Sequence to fold (241 residues):
Amino acid sequence: MARKTISGIDVAAALATRHARLDTWAREVLGHAFADLALLDRALTHGSASRATAGSYQRLEFLGDRVLGCVVASLLYGRHDEPEGRLTARLHAMVEGPANARVARGWNAGPLIAMEPVSRGKGLADNDNVLGDVAEAIVAAVFIDGGWTAAQALVTRHWGPLMAADQPFLNDPKSSLQQWALKRRLGMPEYLVISRDGPDHAPMFTVEATVRGLPATTGSGRSRQEAEKAAATALLARLES
Fold:
């Protein structure tokens, strides 16, 4: 039987090569040996990928969000003797976009995400939202593959360092804006790229930050992440004034 090819590429061979790469990465970086590498592959597949019909990270992200929140809540309860309000603020800071993206960047997960070249060219592989979703999906993949103990170990190992009381990460402008909005039940802040100028090797992004019911602010930077932080800083400054 002839092997399936797409544009001359042996699909089975390409998948085997990817799985071998993911297996090494998972063992060395995540600290987990997957019995089912297809789970990890799906956790690292963006919806734009041509093979995403086999499954992207979206469903895994849904589960991973809940598993991550439960583990972090348990860790916070054990590590910090604080009132409920402060624990809630810490929980939101530790399990939402910026924190999860920070963890994913520490894993260098971006280059492993399967996505269309156009999406990668737009910087989505380094986007906070995408990286945060991937981190949650990986938590779910580990949970399904290895159970609660494996997921708890993963979260403790990689999110635990962010929980220290003196962590400057808690003062990240996007995290601070997020905490402010959630405390007032205004939902999550939203970020929209309104322009991308300059050559490919030195782009300049301008991003608009909005919180429900408030005027938008803008910020610019050499990366989308930098521009989002600048926009969040501008909105926080307006709130403080």
In short: Strands lie at 5-6, 9-10, 190-197, 204-210, 217-221. Residues 101 and 132 are 4 Å apart (CA to CA).
